[in-house]
Design goal:
Mean pLDDT: 77
Radius of gyration: 37 Å
Distance between the termini: 73 Å
Shape: elongated
Helix content: over 70%
Length: 416
């Protein structure tokens, strides 16, 4: 209670900000879901536009901020903005010009632009965070995810297709861009073997992209089968995914407004090279979807199983190599630290030894050290040279101290 009372109001407001944003996001998705379910045409035509333009333009302050986050945020914003613009054109064609927007090939190509921007944005994220991953493990993740995703997309959409046409070409371009994007997204999810920050902003962004790509898949499937109807489940998934995407970007930017690498979305010290294999479950996302839609096919399951088994075995070898490398690095750093400590302790002992054996003012041997060396010398049995002992005194030295002071006397001793 005292902590809350003593907390700075600005800090408290900053802590409550993500919570309020999540409540707003949940409210928008809930209202959108209810109105879509009840078939509210006004919401499908105009309300959705308001939400989409808000989701896009509310990212502008993040884009203006001077940081490495601005470039990925810019492409995410452009993706949402162009999707909103495409929906606006859809409304103009449908309500203003009384045309069929679903038959417009140009509009279908325009809807491809958001996918392109999202591919660029997630590619930038992968490039910015490249230093956090082991290159061999990341390459293995990327190859495995590419093979599994490509196989699943072929089984889901292309296996029974006869050929291309002008009408179906945009749908296949959707699939091509979505395959690239979801491959990168799942690769990032699989390769991230450490727990992210508490707000899970990157998980929100990646999952929103996954939902967007799955929405594309559902749209393409309905389009190829001639069953697509506007303002139905695909559109609901699109809008919900874009709202989540905008929310995740805002929370990620809010988390580290001053960092030079806020595009990482993670703690600056986070390392993704090692960790448990639970993240590999993301590889099974599309195979599970394929089984749910097409049923169990033994040959496909065997193909997926062989890819996953090969991946797990290879990853185990790579992870062991990473662990050995980390152990060697830790030992080297430990040995280096010990050497530094030994050098510092040796220097300290030498300093203490010099202080004990020498006079602090003149640097000459102390009385105890002089007596010790004299005893050692006199204790020797034979001498190769004559031994002389001289006693030197400064006459009337006390007068110097009395007349000129202690400091002058010290200077006389040093120069003498």
């Amino acid at each position: 209670m005292n902590t809350m009372q003593n907390m700075d109001p600005s800090v408290a407001a900053q802590k409550d900000w993500p919570v309020k944003l999540w409540l707003l996001t949940a409210s928008l998705i809930f209202v959108h879901s209810v109105l879509s379910y009840t078939g509210n045409a006004w919401w499908g035509d105009f309300g959705t536009l308001i939400v989409l333009f808000w989701a896009a333009l509310s990212l502008w302050p993040i884009v203006k901020r001077e940081s490495d986050f601005r470039l990925p945020a810019l492409y995410f914003m452009l993706g949402i903005l162009f999707y909103a613009a495409a929906d606006l054109i859809w409304v103009i064609l449908g309500l203003g010009l009384r045309l069929d927007p679903g038959s417009s090939i140009s509009l279908a190509y325009f809807y491809i632009l958001p996918n392109l921007f999202f591919v660029v944005a997630i590619t930038l994220y992968l490039m910015v965070n490249m230093h956090r991953w082991n290159k061999i493990q990341l390459l293995l993740d990327l190859i495995t995810v590419s093979l599994v995703t490509g196989t699943a997309v072929y089984n889901l959409f292309l296996k029974n297709q006869v050929g291309l046409s002008i009408e179906t070409l945009p749908a296949f371009l959707y699939l091509a861009l979505d395959t690239i994007a979801i491959t990168i997204v799942i690769t990032v999810l699989v390769a991230t073997r450490q727990s992210p920050v508490k707000d899970h902003s990157i998980s929100t962004i990646l999952l929103a992209l996954v939902f967007f790509m799955l929405s594309d898949g559902l749209y393409v499937s309905q389009k190829l089968n001639g069953t697509f109807i506007a303002n139905e489940i695909p559109d609901w998934l699109y809008i919900s995914a874009l709202i989540l995407l905008s929310t995740g970007i805002k929370i990620a930017a809010r988390k580290s407004p001053g960092a030079r690498n806020p595009a990482d979305f993670y703690e600056e010290t986070m390392d993704f090279r090692e960790g448990p294999f639970w993240s590999a479950a993301w590889i099974l996302l599309l195979p599970i979807l394929s089984v749910l839609l097409h049923g169990i096919r033994i040959q496909e399951l065997l193909n997926y199983a062989l890819l996953v088994i090969f991946y797990l075995v290879a990853s185990l070898y790579v992870q062991n190599s990473i662990a050995v490398e980390r152990t060697l690095k830790e030992r080297t750093e430990h040995n280096t630290l010990l050497q530094v400590l030994v050098a510092e302790r040796t220097a300290q002992l030498q300093t203490i030894n010099h202080m004990v054996q020498n006079d602090q003012l003149t640097g000459l041997l102390s009385r105890n050290r002089f007596a010790e060396l004299l005893d050692q010398t006199l204790g020797q049995k034979a001498y190769a040279w004559p031994l002389h002992l001289a006693l030197i005194d400064i006459n009337r030295f006390r007068n110097i101290n009395n007349l000129y002071g202690q400091e002058i006397g010290d200077q006389v001793l040093i120069q003498a």
